[in-house]
Amino acid sequence: MGNLKSFSRTDDEKTVLFDINRCIEEVVKVVWNELKYHVTLHKELQGDLPEIKGHEGQVGQVIMNMLVNAAQAMDDKGDIYLTTSKSGDNIQITIKDNGKGMSEDIQKKIFDPFFTTKEVNKGTGLGLSISYGIIEKHSGSITVDSKLGEGTQFTIMLPSFRHDEHCSHLS
Description:
With about 170 residues, the protein is an alpha+beta fold. The protein is built from six helices and seven strands, in the order αβαββαββααββα. α3 (about 55-70) packs antiparallel against α5. It starts with a helix and ends with a helix.
């Protein structure tokens, strides 16, 4: 239950420096019951990543949404690959599944508010739109690459915090 506190009341959350790998580990604990019976989760979290400056709970919500969507994209059992790495001045988070995949037409619409491929009363179509907005608000980007019948990969890029930024306004 304590894990859920870090993802609640994100509107009044302050901007902080946080470790993306720790954030991901907390998210996995929260969603594990939804995943464990039909998903094998493969995590490759690069150690010694720079911190991210932002709203940890909001970024956690994005990752949680991606993991749940990936699990729901599988007919039976499947794999989710979750990785973090440094890419230039950014932290890259990839969430890849071997689920149903999406057509190009659907990929163009998935970040639109209220667009959903789920059955009536199964989804609002807001999850990916809100996720997109959260990542954009953190000066990051989110992209999708998917092939029907093969799976989907989301790539999230977030700027890493440079400690020289922190001191520049003090002088």
